[in-house]
């Protein structure tokens, strides 16, 4: 599967992801899911363009220390 933003159409990326997950990859199912998948790709592309520098995580989960 190609990474978002590289060569390969979103439709083919979606088809490959569905097949890898064992989900029905029929043309009808692809048509149903493609708009949402394209929205995810667009959102990921916008986030990748942000200059976040040394931004720390919003939440840090610390495991309790063993007693």
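Sequence proposed for the structure above (67 residues):
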């Amino acid at each position: 599967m190609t990474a978002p933003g590289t060569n390969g159409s979103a439709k083919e990326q979606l088809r490959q992801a569905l097949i890898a997950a064992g989900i029905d990859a029929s043309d009808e199912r692809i048509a149903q899911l493609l708009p949402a998948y394209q929205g995810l790709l667009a959102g990921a592309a916008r986030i990748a363009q942000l200059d976040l520098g040394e931004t720390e995580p919003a939440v840090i989960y610390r495991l309790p220390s063993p007693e």
